[in-house]
């Protein structure tokens, strides 16, 4: 599916049939709503990229045909769709695979003019939405970067204990330990992040609106949680992943993840570099192999980092340590994705066999 999606994104829009909002329900009806989440997200992105907010109702109605449908999840996913990395071409391709055929009808000159004007108005509106989203994201990523620096400097230390690390039997390579309870709040409307500690935590929750508005989010970090700083390829810290004693993993909303990693060991001059998804797997590989290892957070980011690492460290042999985690339905998305990345970039991929208690 991933290779197919990349091909579709490169499909010239001029070769696509003329898709109107009236066509959308019929288009979606030819696609199985009970698909994997990655495809479901891409279909939503394609709809939003072409129709903007006008496409939500039809996409949401189609999504309800899946037994896994959750209204809050659909709305949250739709709001997260930014930019136009996936086009309506993805939706058209999948609909055609399901038997959809565009309706051929000769338009009058007036209808052609009206259709063209409608498409141009929609394009300008969507372009304005994309530019506004991108500006907000850039501003909020910078704000998260600022608050991450403050969090690391004022509320963490290099030494500490974590039940999660003890359970996984891995060392704390370059991570930071929360020293006291702190709340990180993010307000997209005010375009700012804040940290609350001590008595201010109670004041924060007392003043928190109920219900909480969509533009306001927060995360509570307790003592016993450790923080994994995430740096770009040049070593600049942008954000973090917090891992609690129970193993719950959290990211600040808007935090930059793409192209960011956590390094165990030094990459400069390395003969071999290993890339793994989760911290426990990366730490286990580094401990066993003594090779510098990077935590990529997820397999999508692994593909991005693989290219960046090869560009910056061309002499190093890059090995992917993929996740081998079969699902009840027999699918193994982590292994499938890692093998696809390795095949595309000509890399070696391995699937570490570790005791269950050490798995990422």
Automatic annotation (TrEMBL):
InterPro entries: PriCT_2 (IPR014819), TOPRIM_DnaG/twinkle (IPR034154), TOPRIM_dom (IPR006171)
Region ranges (Disordered): 106-129
Residue ranges constituting the Toprim domain according to the UniProt record: 273-350
Residue ranges constituting the Primase C-terminal domain according to the UniProt record: 27-95
Pfam families in the cross-refs: PriCT_2 (PF08707), Toprim_3 (PF13362)
Name of the protein: Toprim domain-containing protein
Source organism per UniProt: Pseudomonas neustonica
Lineage: Bacteria, Pseudomonadati, Pseudomonadota, Gammaproteobacteria, Pseudomonadales
């Amino acid at each position: 599916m991933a290779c197919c999606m990349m091909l579709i994104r490169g499909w010239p829009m001029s070769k696509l049939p003329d898709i109107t909002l009236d066509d959308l329900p019929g288009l979606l009806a030819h696609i199985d709503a009970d698909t994997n989440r990655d495809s479901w997200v891409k279909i939503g992105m394609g709809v939003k990229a072409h129709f903007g907010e006008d496409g939500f109702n039809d996409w949401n109605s189609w999504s309800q045909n899946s037994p896994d449908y959750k209204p809050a999840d659909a709305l949250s996913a739709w709001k997260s769709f930014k930019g136009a990395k996936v086009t309506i071409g993805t939706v058209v391709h999948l609909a055609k695979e399901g038997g959809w055929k565009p309706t051929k009808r000769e338009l009058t000159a007036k209808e052609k003019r009206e259709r063209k004007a409608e498409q141009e108005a929609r394009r300008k509106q969507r372009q304005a939405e994309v530019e506004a989203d991108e500006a907000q994201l850039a501003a909020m990523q910078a704000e998260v970067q600022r608050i991450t620096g403050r969090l690391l400097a004022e509320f963490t230390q290099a030494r500490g204990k974590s039940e999660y690390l003890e359970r996984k039997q891995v060392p704390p390579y370059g991570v930071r330990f929360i020293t006291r309870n702190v709340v990180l709040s993010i307000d997209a409307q005010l375009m700012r992040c804040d940290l609350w500690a001590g008595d201010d935590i109670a004041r924060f929750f007392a003043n928190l609106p109920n219900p909480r508005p969509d533009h306001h989010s927060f995360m509570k970090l307790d003592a016993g949680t450790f923080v994994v700083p995430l740096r770009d390829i040049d070593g600049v810290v942008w954000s973090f992943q917090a891992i609690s004693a129970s193993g719950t993993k959290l990211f600040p909303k808007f935090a930059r993840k793409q192209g960011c990693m956590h390094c165990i060991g030094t990459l400069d001059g390395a003969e071999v570099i290993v890339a793994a998804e989760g911290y426990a797997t990366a730490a286990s590989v580094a401990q066993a192999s003594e090779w510098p290892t990077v935590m990529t957070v997820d397999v999508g980011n692994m593909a991005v980092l693989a290219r960046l690492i090869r560009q910056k460290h061309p002499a190093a042999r890059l090995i992917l340590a993929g996740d081998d985690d079969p699902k009840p339905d027999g699918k193994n998305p982590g292994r499938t994705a890692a093998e696809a990345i390795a095949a595309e970039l000509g890399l070696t991929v391995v699937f570490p066999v570790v005791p269950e208690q050490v798995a990422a």
